[in-house]
Amino acid sequence: MKIEGLLTDEAILTELGRRIVQRRLELQFTQEMLANQAGVSKRTVERIEAGATAQMSTLIRILRALELLDRLETLVPEAVPRPMDLVRLKGKARKRASGKRQAAQEGPWQWGDEA
Q: Among 13, 44, 89, 115, which residue's beta carbon has the most beta carbons within 10 A?
């Protein structure tokens, strides 16, 4: 199954759990072996493989034990400033987001309670 935006969170967790099972089996690990290598309980491995939620640190430990930690780089790549941002910010890094600007409202501007 392809992980995409139309899937529910639960479906994505289930698919990630299935993929973790596949990788564990490729490496010939039992759940107990993976748990020991990752420093988590066997029950935690069972829950993640079943599609339950987990803490990020637990997932990182399991990915490290499954030799998949380097794949996180593609998940959330390092942000590289665009050339025009460098010119505008004079080499400084952004620290705040301005949010999205709303389109101009129709009609003249009015006070809120005079409408």
A: 44
